Amino acid sequence: MLNKWLSGKNGYLLGFVASYALVALALWIQTHYSLNPCPLCISQRIVFMALGLLFLCAACINPNTLLHKTLTLLLVLTALGGAAVAIRHWWLQAHRDSMIADCGVGFDYMFENFPLQKALTLVFRGTGDCAEIDWTFLGLSIPQMSFLAFIGFVAYALYLTKK
Q: Cβ distance 86 to 154 under 8 Å?
């Protein structure tokens, strides 16, 4: 029975639901604990949403096509990209004592007032806000949990290709 849910279209739809469930969880944590997400948190949410859309597209395409294999590659690369953002965020938190406490400009302001390349550079540099650990679960910060989720999505996407 479990194999039925984890294979074919059902498996990809489960990936879609899981991706957006993680975004919903992040929004719930944000509102319930009155937290303001930093640029790297927002970036990770965007990657989770992109993963969800890729899972949904893969669910709608014949599994024996080149397009489906391309979508699987995009799933893996997107999840690895998300893992890289989470590692950067985790690194900033691990080195928060040596960082200058600078809140920087907001995510919206960056993209409204800077060229795209400059805005992306600012987002991935992180700010003092990115180094704060505002919430943990089982001793893990949000970027640590995101990293585990992204690696899980890499493994899950590769698993789905074998089914």
A: no
**Catalytic residues, which ones?**
38, 41, 45, 103, 130
| Pair 65, 161: CB distance under 8 Å | no
**140 bridge partner residues:** 137
Distance CA 68, CA 11 (A): 14
Residues 6 or more apart from 160 whose CB is under 8 A from it?
Answer: 6, 7, 11, 12, 15, 58, 72
Alpha carbon 146 to its chain centroid, in Å, reads 6
Do 131 and 95 contact (CB within 8 A), yes or no? yes
Burial letters 111-140, b for 16+ CB under 10 A, else e: beeeeeeebeebbeebbebbbbebeeeeee
Q: pLDDT tens across 15-60, in order?
A: 999 999 999 999 999 889 888 788 888 889 999 999 999 999 999 9
**CATH superfamily assigned to domain 8-162:** DsbB-like (1.20.1550.10)
Segments making up each domain of the chain, as ranges:
8-162
Give the Cα separation of 21 and 37 in Å (integer): 17
